[in-house]
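Quick one, tokens below. Sequence please?
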């Protein structure tokens, strides 16, 4: 049984790791502002800052985000599944850069010439092998903790599938991988993050029924908060607002991107990152004392 000292240690670790994600995201924002002021302009996307002095911060922050999302357990297996997927994809976004835009702005001495093919070849192979090791370690750990739940088995199976698809894509269609993997991983990462926000937003109606199907698929009892609980009255309205903002921004700015509007990708990324950072901070505050935002009713079936 966990002693009070042990429990305090776990909760403090939870706080530090969750706050680290917020602080590193803020660090990326600061780095972007410094570069924009220094160059006198801003690139068409945050990803394009890979070719500027923001380069190292961009990669480092995405790795911290990825590790944080995977390492921290969600409030329940459904939220955890979405965050694990997003965390799995974040390093791919970092290490497989967007193609160098032809309209990079700013003084020439502020722009980096990066040997993408060599970097991607080294980094992607290392990343895939690292993922494989992490997958085996997770499977081993889950097995040592007793019989795997259905949620564990499905989560590990999906992780293995994503890894297999990535390796197959890299080996069979390398040129396409170099061109498309960054954008594909970035879109999938934001969709997974939005889905995790939706779990907390707990919208009624069709959305609730769709999420209920996921809970049944994973054999997990749905979390229920009393309507007069602190979660329902203080936090859930903000989670719902965040989900709506992210969805509307994705639709409106997504249309602008397709229409070729200048810098639409940059503002789309900002419009997804900022609300998520706010959601993550609010969720951290909600679970500050207990280390979790899950109600006591959540159980996982074997």
């Amino acid at each position: 049984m966990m002693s009070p000292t042990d429990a305090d240690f776990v909760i403090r670790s939870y706080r530090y790791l969750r706050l680290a994600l917020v602080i590193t995201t803020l660090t990326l924002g600061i780095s972007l502002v410094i570069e924009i002021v220094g160059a006198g302009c801003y690139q068409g996307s945050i990803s394009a800052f890979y070719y500027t002095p923001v380069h190292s911060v961009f990669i480092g922050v995405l790795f911290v985000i990825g590790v944080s999302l995977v390492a921290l357990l969600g409030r329940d297996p459904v939220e955890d599944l979405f965050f694990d997927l997003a965390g799995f994809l974040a390093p791919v976004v970092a290490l497989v850069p967007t193609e160098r835009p032809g309209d990079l702005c700013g003084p020439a001495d502020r722009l980096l010439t990066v040997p993408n093919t060599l970097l991607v070849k080294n980094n992607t192979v290392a990343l895939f092998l690292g993922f494989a090791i992490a997958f085996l370690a997770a499977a081993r750990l889950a097995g040592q903790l007793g019989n795997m739940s259905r949620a564990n088995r499905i989560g590990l199976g999906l992780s293995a599938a994503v890894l297999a698809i990535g390796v197959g894509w890299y080996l069979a269609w390398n040129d396409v991988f170099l061109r498309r993997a960054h954008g594909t991983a970035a879109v999938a990462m934001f969709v997974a993050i939005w889905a995790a926000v939706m779990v907390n937003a707990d919208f009624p109606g069709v959305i609730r029924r769709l999420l209920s199907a996921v809970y049944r698929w994973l054999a997990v009892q749905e979390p229920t908060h009393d309507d007069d609980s602190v979660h329902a009255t203080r936090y859930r309205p903000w989670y719902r607002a965040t989900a709506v903002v992210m969805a509307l921004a994705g639709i409106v700015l997504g249309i602008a991107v397709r229409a070729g509007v200048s810098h639409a990708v940059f503002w789309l990324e900002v419009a997804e990152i900022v609300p998520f950072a706010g959601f993550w901070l609010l969720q951290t505050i909600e679970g500050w004392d207990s280390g979790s935002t899950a109600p006591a009713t959540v159980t996982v079936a074997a």
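The CA atoms of residues 93 and 186 lie 6 Å apart. Confidence is low (pLDDT under 50) at residues 296-302.
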